[in-house]
Amino acid sequence: MKSYEVIRQAVEEPGVKAVAGALKVSPALVYKWCEQPADTEDPDQSGAKNPLDRVREMFLLTKDIRLIRWLCNEAGGFYISNPVPELRRTLDETIFGETRSMVRDFSELLDAVTEAVDDDPGIDADEADEIRQKWEDLKACVERFVIACEKGHYRLKKKDEKPAQAPPRK
User: What residue spans define the domains of the chain?
Assistant: First the structure.
């Protein structure tokens, strides 16, 4: 689905005027966000670069996953990247590499908590933010592993077996 289609569907229920009013922009701008963006090759397209496209561009420029994580957190969830099976490594190397990553991320989370309470008994906002980032890293790592398990990325492929022969007819 294209970003302008997502926005078009999202503003349908509250209405363009209500969304525009809440965002303190003109309804015409919100309508533009709901259209296919202007293309340099097609002058008939009149859409404006919408907020979703801008966030995507910002992420592509910075490669900072915290942008996406923040949005997901605001929506009550969290971001997990899709698992990519590593074809050059053996099954054992891949599984143990993934489990080592999970243990490492858990260790980093524990280190962040320990450092936060070492200097004083409380955890301040900056320390809580650091703990949050380590927690997000750990959740993402474990979820990627579980999804890869569910998709069969760690399953040994059986060699082609001969098809079973049908029993002789009587």
Answer: 3-63, 91-150
